[in-house]
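During the reporting period the student researcher (J.K.) took over the structure-prediction task from the postdoctoral fellow and processed the backlog of single-chain submissions. One of the processed entries is reproduced below for the supervisory committee.
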Amino acid sequence: MQIASTPEFSISHTDLSLPPTATAVLNISGMKCAGCVRTVENRLNQCDGVRSATVNLVTEVAAVEYVPAQVTPEVLAQTVTATGFPTQARDTTALQATTTDWVTRKAAEQRTYVRQFAIATLLLILSTIGHLKHVGGHFGWLELPILSSISFHAGLATLTLVLPAREILIDGWQGARRGAPNMNTLVSLGALSAYLTSLVALLLPGLGWECFFDEPVMLLSFILLGRTLEERARFRAANALRSLISLQPTLARLVPTPEPSESAIEIPVEQVQVGEWLQVRPSEKMPVDGVIETGQTTVDESMLTGESLPATKQPGDPVAAGTLNQSGVIILKVTQTGSDTVLSRMIALVETAQTRKAPIQGLADEISGYFTYGVLGLSALTFLFWHFIGLPLWPEVMQSALGPMHSHHQMTPMSSTWLVSLKLAISVLVIACPCALGLATPTAILVGSGIGAERGLLIRGGDILEQVHHLDTVVFDKTGTLTAGHPQVSDCVSFGPDSWGQDWSETDLIQLAATVESGTHHPLAVAIRQAAETQALPLLNATEFETKAGFGTVAKIDHRWVRLGNQTWLTQVGISLDDTAVQTAQTLAQTGKTVVYVAIDNQLVGLIAVIDPLRENALETVERLQQMGLAVHILSGDRKAAADAIAAQLNLPTERVQAEVTPEGKVNAVAQLQTAGHRIGFVGDGINDAPALAQANVGIALNSGTEAAMETADIVLMRDSLADVAEALHLSRATFDKIRQNLAWAFTYNLVCIPLAAGALLPVAGISLNPGFAGGFMAFSSVSVVVNSLLLRWQFRDE
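J.K. obtained the following structure tokens:
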């Protein structure tokens, strides 16, 4: 049973007056079209304790938000099963096994469809040969009397219904019996109507009706062809999720100590516990999340992050489950197991994304709930219209409707009217396609989220895709998002010899400063020590360290006091600053740099400037977003000079920059933009920016390896690359465009083809569709929606 907190599926403000909820994931089988989805959703929403239910036709999964005190997932599964759709509550502890079962079941279904289609095709070939032989006379080797026998064709149609089409008929009957007719109900009614009409013509030759046993064979063959292609396309669309699942190893090599050892034992990965040590050899996958204790290696993280270049890993570096150890033997200490690993959370996010619908699907779902009933009614009206009004009014269309193969002169006017009316009514039944409406959204989301997962772009669902489509503004946090978040020394200025006559070079200043800062962990201190390490400068002997919080640090080196701090502190301790030093410091600060003053005893000897540099691709990302028609803003808790300097490097006007903003202030700033009518995407690091991420219409987090990034944001960028912000928005827009194309096609197809099948063009053009070709159109409609979604993969293949 998969239970997750509500924020895993949506971002909302918690109402403390409501009982706590959880989310269960149910595996559902037997759904064939959007009508089935609607039936299951309605049944779940009617259950006591259910807040909401979303069902996905492609992945055959339902996500149900429920109140644990009122209902359990097992009861929900039993309720849906009683409706006619076998259902099981999913167990997250066996996520890999569950998905493996899904893959195995889908592979078996594909083999079944292929086998059924092969049988139906053989019967169709025999029927077609016999039909050509019957119509065209002698064809040499086709000179077999049995092929043109009506009894032979009746047998072929019977075999088609009994063998390859048996499951379609059974499912269609069960849907009708439950009061929830589906696409199989329509196909079954159409095929059986054609078969029974032909059987009546065979048993009652006095009616003068022409038998058309070939039409149910053709109809069902086209349907099975469409199902086969559709299943294969759906299976391909789920490649990314299957690939993620396959990353998880089944065994782990447990060692007693973090030291290299030969006494490793293999245990199931499910039995690994946090704190244990595991050995991972080259060409093996990391079984769980951990930190390297011993050894160094390179790791291929491409399936998790989309980054093709391997990452170098040394002791102390984290590694994620599913990544590939390439070059060295390592010992890692386990930090996360099971559903807590990065890989498992990614799988959960992708599965959730493929379950959540886009609001644009709402109209299609509403129509699908009544679609089958509407088609049944239209079929009955078609029969009644042509029988009582159309054919008496336009008798000249009789031959066009019957087709050139029917002997109209052998039938009475009444029998001809019955036959034409039945054929048109049957065509309406089989050409209608609720399946295309049901597949429009989930297939596009399945492909889009799969592409995103392969590239390290985790988009939470169809509702987020629609929100992205409406964005007009992107707001960036500065520190750690637009900037690297790791300050670096950018300038070092020496003011010449001190009062003792000693001249201090820039290298000397860095060495002194690194020594004084050797005992602190402030970001500025880390930057100065890194500068010393880069220049291979050893630390000096120092004593009497003291840190003044918010001001600076002091230590004694060679009997002289060395102070590092800000201007205020040095002034307070009586160190004078000449105009040159102040002017130099102001110039550095105006470019966004933080200035550290260096003094020896009571004399200022130099300045060290530290800056948090822009991330790689920051300028290109901002420019690409602007080219996409999005306004870009910056929010920062840093000094205004630093924020303005970053904006200048990005060619952004200062009016789009707000500095010295608290986390609460960021929420208010986003809310003010929303009040002004803007749709906001907020980009942050997923830690301090969680409130603003939740407030924005779309929250985008650069993955920092924390729970906050995974649980708060609507889009998570696993590569931690700023360029992926534009890439994620581009993918979201393209996926949503596919959804709109699919829905437009599905609606247009049904609006055009149903009247065509009902004979709308018969009086003016003499055009009508027989049931066999109507079935072909229906199969083509479903397949085209899935194929159009798969084209998204081609669109992004070379990007």
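The committee noted the following: The two ends are 39 Å apart (CA to CA).
J.K. will present the remaining backlog at the next meeting.
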